[in-house]
Design brief:
The chain has about 180 residues and is mostly helical. The protein has one domain. It is about 90% helix and about 0% strand. It has 4 helices and no strands. Helix 2 packs antiparallel against helix 3 and helix 3 packs antiparallel against helix 4. The protein is rod-shaped and about 100 Å long. The two termini are about 35 Å apart.
Length: about 180
């Protein structure tokens, strides 16, 4: 995780350098335009260098976004893991209750009746699911705010869909 943070910081420093160089080349372009004209070789050289810096700056910004996304994805892995475990436990609790219901009905066996413990286990599991879904929702919202994806881009749409899915899941869980 620290390695990602260090790389993001390096990209930030690179961006500062590119911006400073772009300002210097912009001044150089203005000077060249004033002295030699916009059709001069000096002006075109400064313009080419400026465009190269602009391209490098965009690449550095993309690298920083990609690193930030990778860092967020690493933070989501444990949450997704726990949510998968919780879902598996939920299924186990549901199967246990269904089995007890069937035994109790078929055999009229009081030892197979559903207990308060069975329901408490399901409630605890559902509460854990709510907590982890809220955490994932929070991470995805922060990621969407941080990344600055353009509305309508594939990345934006994927995150927006994940946020909407978690919000809908939370509404279902709370009902």
């Amino acid at each position: 995780m620290q390695e990602y943070a260090n790389q993001i910081a390096l990209e930030g420093k690179s961006q500062e350098i590119y911006r400073a160089q772009m300002n210097a080349y912009l001044n150089e372009m203005r000077n060249a335009a004033g002295i030699f004209g916009v059709d001069s070789n000096e002006y075109r050289k400064a313009q080419t260098a400026y465009q190269g810096m602009a391209t490098a700056l965009k690449q550095s910004e993309k690298n920083a976004r990609d690193l930030t996304r990778a860092m967020y994805d690493l933070n989501l892995k444990p949450i997704d893991y726990m949510m998968n475990r919780i879902k598996a436990e939920a299924q186990m609790y549901q199967d246990r209750v269904a089995l007890k219901e069937a035994r109790g009905t078929l055999l009229n066996d009081p030892s197979s009746y559903i207990t308060e413990n069975d329901y408490n286990s399901q409630i605890k599991n559902n509460n854990s699911n709510i907590i982890y879904t809220e955490q994932r929702l929070d991470y995805n919202k922060r990621l969407l705010d941080t990344m600055g994806y353009e509305e309508g881009s594939e990345q934006y749409d994927q995150l927006k869909s994940a946020i909407e899915a978690d919000e809908a899941a939370l509404r279902q869980m709370v009902i």
